[in-house]
Amino acid sequence: MTVLFYIAGAVAIIATIMVVTRSQLVHALLYLVISLFAVAVVFFTLGAPFVAALEVIVYAGAIMMLFVFAVMLLDVRAQKPPRIPWSAWAGPVALVVVLLAELVYGITLQNHALAAGSVGPRQVSAALFGPYVLGVELASMLLLAALIGARHVAAEPTDAPAGEADAGATGLEEAPEVPPAPEGVRG
Amino acid sequence: MLHLLWLIPALPLAGFVLLTLLNRRLSRPAAAIIGAGSVGLAAIVAILVSVSFMVSPPAGHHFHQVLWTWFDTGGLRPQVAFYLDAMTVIFILVITVIGFLIHLYSTEFMEHDEGFTRFFMYMNLFVASMLVLVLADNLLLLYLGWEGVGMCSYFLIAFWQKDTQNVYCGRKAFIVTRIGDTAMIVGLFLLFTQYHTLAIQPLMTNIANATFSGDPVVVAAALLLLGGAVGKSAQLPLQTWLPDAMAGPTPVSALIHAATMVTAGVYLIARTHVLYLMAPDVRLVVAIVGTVTLLYAGFAALAQRDIKRALAYSTVSQIGYMFLALGVAGWDAAIFHFMTHAFFKALLFLGAGVVIEALADEHDIFKMGGLRRELPVVFWTFTIGAASLAALPLVTAGYYSKDLIISSSLAPPFGDVWLWAGAVAGALLTGIYSFRLVFVTFFGEQHTPITRRPRWRMQTPLVVLAVLSVIGGLVWLPEWMGGWDPFARFVGAALPLLPASGWSFGLGEATIVEIVSLAGIGIASLLWIRWRDATAVFSARPVPDALERYWRAGWGFDVLYQYVFVVPVKWFAHVARNDLVEPVVKGIAGINVLAWRGLSASQNGLLRLYIAVAGAGLAIIIAVVVLK
Amino acid sequence: MAAVSLNSGLILAAILFVIGFVGLVTRRNLIVMLACIEIMLNAAGLAFVVAGARWGRADGQVMFLFVLAMAAAEVAVGLALAIRFRKTLGRLDIDEADEMRG
């Protein structure tokens, strides 16, 4: 198991570095998928099979799919992406090395072993419907807000919000006479 | 009635405040009514107070009205209080009545000017300050009025401020009088340190009782106050500002630089005459300064082409006469000449103003001419004024006052034949230059057409002042004419009379003055009427021309001062620019600029920079936490 | 099942986080920046799971779930913004949006 952990960890790290350094957008996204898969394996080795599955289904599945669709919508094949000169990495890498050093130092101040045994879906669900039920509800509201927000932000200005006149009876508060969004509004 | 004394300076001050607050919202007629009306009301109150004072004089021939205590610190406790005695009566009458006439004149003179309200604002403040000056019962309050008139003089000289030349003239006036003012304040410090009071009457009593003649403190104080008087009254060596002060509007020249402010020095010395009696050497200096100045200015006036500058030098010269009178302890003679001079000099300036306006702002007398028929009222009044200035015998006020001074300059115990000779020579010069003005301006052929004629508001003051210039001298007749001298007896209650007023000088000495003044007028008529062309040719020849230019430039004093004072000071200021303090001040500014540059560079809108900075902050915080 | 120590897991999370951060600061393409944000969120979630595994409780995984939900919401809005960004500015370069008024 430990060996698996280290291998998966290495893969994750390498894949993440590739994500960050690729100039082609789609390449970067694909590497990101690999990284997420690797992290899922890491979860598995840690005794958290439920989140391993979630990672694959939601993160590598739904979220990355969102990315791919966005890339398709944006039609980015037109320009050749500019190469980033190595000098541009100097400053951020220096900053980040310092940050990492601090984090590692802080982490290694003490150590523990992980608990044996895995925490399966049954325990997670019990926690979710137990103490964390409020969080679940809030998370669902968050997702709803994101849904509506994303729709409105991405919509063309010529889409008249008054086209949703059928929502009148549902008690949804609709601003009367909402004028069409002015030209040139940025998101 | 006497208790209305405080109203006299308060009314013009109220006029000033009203005009300042309502400046833009006042129409011209309203501003004129407030401006001239406040002084007019003050004149009425002054007349009432004066009549009351003359008819039923209060005990001790003085009236003291305390308003409030100004401040109280370190033993100095000046009050805002007014002191009225005979000398003050003369001064407040002259200031308010002539002031009112000039304000009335100004309502027509300035009618096309866009700064109309501002003009009356400053004029009212000036009148208020001058009244405070003469009414003050202590030297500190007097100094307040002194500074006030100096400030208003600056404002009014530089009135047409769009032309920076006018502003420079105002600045020059202010700086030169400042030199005198500084001497004066040092003198005040000295007096206070020695005598512990600045209230005039107690101070004079202390000086008379406590010191011996020639006491160095008294001498020093007298000299310093003389310095102040010399500055304000434009005597040598601080006379350079007055000719340039003619850059202001003519009513300003008439009021400030002829009738009132420049006589403040005379007032000061007369007020503190005890000091000068106790320091005879300084008193002699006063007389010498007066005599030299009157001769200097006489020659300078002779060479002027600008009508106002000629009158300015004439003012310097006549104040020289007043200083001469003060220097021979003829205090009341000086006041008498002040009064008559106020009449005719204001008249001359106002007349000059009419001429200048009529000829569309032409100042050069050689470009005038022939106005005798065109502007008869102005011609006759101006001639009367010039005659009074030249002391035309018997029929003009100037004759009586100037004659008194000339004879005092010879009278024992303080008279001196050199002073007398100078005064007589000055009288000759006065006759010549004053009638030169009359003949060149009003006679001969006309060189410039008339574009504006005066109406009643400009002509009435001329007529009133002309009448005063004729009859104003009849209040003090000389011995050989009967010696009726109500003026002398009135003023003598406040100022000691000439110790030698009992000295009667016969008809002989009197005729010298008459001969001299008539001779002056005659010479002027010859040179500029009969032999006009010959005079022009003569003055174009190299030596006379150079001499004339030299006199016209005020005997080169401006150039002298420029090289002796102005250039070195400016050089030094330039050299001392980078002294020790400069880098400190610049450093503070520099740090601020650096900080600004840094901060605005950080607000460049680049999101990645912001994130990086946030990351750096995160690193720092973690470091702090982890390393605890 | 796990013989990995706590530190290993946390250090892995730290490394992934830091890599995501450096990508965020360096890359100019908006989509790549969003991906880097996802990397960072993922690393944070990993840290939570590791912590939960240390105690053998479900709380870590529950936190991860919430992080996941939040990441999804944020990605949705972020990509919508990227679309709007592209439409208005023509390119996906973040440095184009450096005007701070209007």
Description:
The complex is a heterotrimer of chains A (187), B (628) and C (102). Helices cover 64% and strands 0% of the residues of chain A. By secondary structure, chain A is mainly α. Chain A has a domain at 2-77 and 92-119: Four Helix Bundle (Hemerythrin (Met), subunit A) (Up-down Bundle). The longest helix of chain A is centred in the first third of the chain and has 26 residues, at 49-74. Chain A is globular and about 50 Å long. The model of chain A is unreliable at 163-187 (pLDDT under 50). By secondary structure, chain B is mostly helical. Helix content of chain B is 71%, strand content 2%. Chain B contains 27 helices and two strands. Chain B has helices spanning 7-21, 28-55, 86-109, 116-135, 139-157, 164-195, 200-210, 216-232, 241-244, 250-259, 264-271, 273-277, 280-302, 307-327, 331-358, 371-374, 376-389, 397-408, 417-442, 456-471, 486-492, 507-530, 532-540, 542-552, 557-575, 581-602, 607-626, and strands spanning 62-69, 79-85. In chain B, strands 1-2 form a two-stranded antiparallel sheet. Chain C has 102 residues and is mainly alpha-helical. Chain C has one domain (8-100): Helix Hairpins, CATH 1.10.287. Chain C has helices at residues 6-26, 30-55, 59-89. In chain C, helix 2 runs antiparallel to helix 3. Classes of the chains: A mainly alpha (187), B mainly alpha (628), C mainly alpha (102). Chains in contact: A-B, A-C, B-C. The interface between A and C is large, with 86 and 74 residues.
As for the number of domains of chain C, it is 1
Strand content of chain A: under 5%
CATH architecture of the domain at 2-77 and 92-119 in chain A: Up-down Bundle
The description of the largest β-sheet of chain C is:
none
- The CATH class of the domain at 2-77 and 92-119 in chain A is Mainly Alpha
Categorize the overall geometry of chain A: globular
Helix count of chain C? 3
Q: For the largest interface in this structure, which chains are involved and how many residues does each contribute? A: A-C, 86 and 74 residues
